[in-house]
Write a structure and sequence with these properties.
With 348 residues, the protein is an all-beta fold. Among the domains are: 105 residues, no CATH class; 80 residues, Lipocalin (Beta Barrel). The strands form 8 sheets. A 7-stranded antiparallel β-sheet has the order 22-23-24-25-26-27-28, with no helix packed on it. A 4-stranded antiparallel β-sheet has the order 4-5-6-7, with no helix packed on it. A 4-stranded antiparallel β-sheet has the order 11-12-13-14, with no helix packed on it. The radius of gyration is 20 Å and the shape is flat.
Length: 348
């Protein structure tokens, strides 16, 4: 399991491969929970990804080095250095021929070709004539694209709706995006391009996005807090935590800077109050009412509810977040799917 534990945070997309390395119980968002007919799993033996149905039957064998959950009816997969897409029938709908890609949203995806990034539909057809040097794909109906030496945003018709004026522009989430105005200044904008508020470069982490109404930020001492959609400080940085993560379902994981048998990771609410004590080795975002956490003493993974009660015991060598009612877990060198009561669905 050494390979799986290598990367601790999978919230940032790789700019070259354009596909996040899914090696932890990553956050599941509304874009990934669309009543899928297939569920992603990792084979504990070869550490590759495939897809099963709700009965645990393998529909897509675990042959992919990376795979996303389904988004907009398509799942981004990578094998070696090439990316493509699988549909909900388990078919390779778009061949693995691209150097990189971002997942589907609003019926479109951006893929990296030898000439640059293009946008394709679900039939794999290029939809705009323009080839872009850089993009992050669509979200909230807009896509950040590089035009010349500046970044702006286009809509799903390929029309520029926020002119190319930024040194760098990141994807929208919940109607907000982070842009780089110059080397020292960052800003939060809305989907009309209006600046909500400007910040010093060290305050906004450019890879971050709004989640559950809040954006994690950093003060000059490196401590983290959260700001709301109006750019106002909602949660001040605190000595109680060393690192605050994204909110999900009203709670956010944090690390208190210590890893002992009695201390480590816990959760705060939107008032900045600790509601689940920092007693876990790892604590991941809530998804469908449950969060995957690691027991400090045994190193095993289990699931807790929002009151901090253990719902599924600490018995797994590794585990992923729930998505559409099922989660992939690993135990004694084998992979399984479980439901939210901990009932095992054998992968076969």
């Amino acid at each position: 399991m050494k390979k799986m534990m290598k990367n601790m945070v999978c919230m940032l997309l790789c700019a070259i491969m354009a596909l996040s390395v899914i090696t932890i119980p990553e956050k599941v968002t509304a874009a990934t929970t669309t009543k899928n007919t297939l569920y992603r799993y990792m084979d504990a033996k070869n550490e590759k990804y495939g897809f099963v149905n709700s009965k645990g039957k393998i529909v897509v064998k675990a042959v992919y080095d990376e795979a996303d959950n389904f988004s907009d009816g398509m799942a981004l997969v990578r094998k070696g250095s090439k990316c493509g897409f699988v549909n909900t029938k388990g078919e390779v709908a778009i061949p693995l021929k691209y150097k990189g890609a971002y997942g589907f949203s609003d019926g479109l995806a951006s893929v990296l070709t030898s000439k640059g990034y293009i946008f394709i539909n679900k039939q794999g057809k290029q939809v705009f004539d323009t080839c872009y040097e850089m993009t992050y794909g669509f979200s909230d109906g807009l896509a950040s694209v590089q035009i010349g030496d500046k970044f702006g945003y286009i809509n799903t018709n390929g029309e520029t709706v926020i002119k190319a004026q930024y040194n760098l522009a990141y994807p929208f989430s919940e109607g907000r995006a982070i842009v780089r105005l110059d080397s020292d200044t960052r800003a939060i904008i809305n989907t009309k391009g209006k600046i909500i508020k400007k910040y010093d470069w060290s305050t906004l982490w450019e890879g971050n996005k709004y989640s559950d109404g809040y954006l994690v930020y950093s003060n000059h001492d490196g401590k983290t807090g959260a700001i709301d959609k109006n750019g106002k400080i909602a949660i001040k940085p605190s000595a109680d935590w060393h690192q605050l993560e994204d909110f999900s379902e009203g709670l956010a994981p944090y690390w208190n800077g210590l890893i002992t048998e009695e201390s480590g990771n816990g959760y705060i609410n939107k008032k900045g109050k600790t509601v689940i004590k920092p007693v876990y080795g790892h604590a991941f975002p809530f998804s469908e009412g449950l969060a995957c956490v690691q027991d400090n003493k045994t190193g095993k993974f289990g699931y807790i509810n929002k009151k901090g009660k253990t719902v599924i015991g600490f018995k797994y060598d590794y585990a992923f977040s729930f998505c559409d009612g099922l989660a992939c877990v690993m135990k004694n060198g084998k992979s399984y799917m479980i439901d939210k009561k901990g009932k095992t669905v054998t992968i076969k």
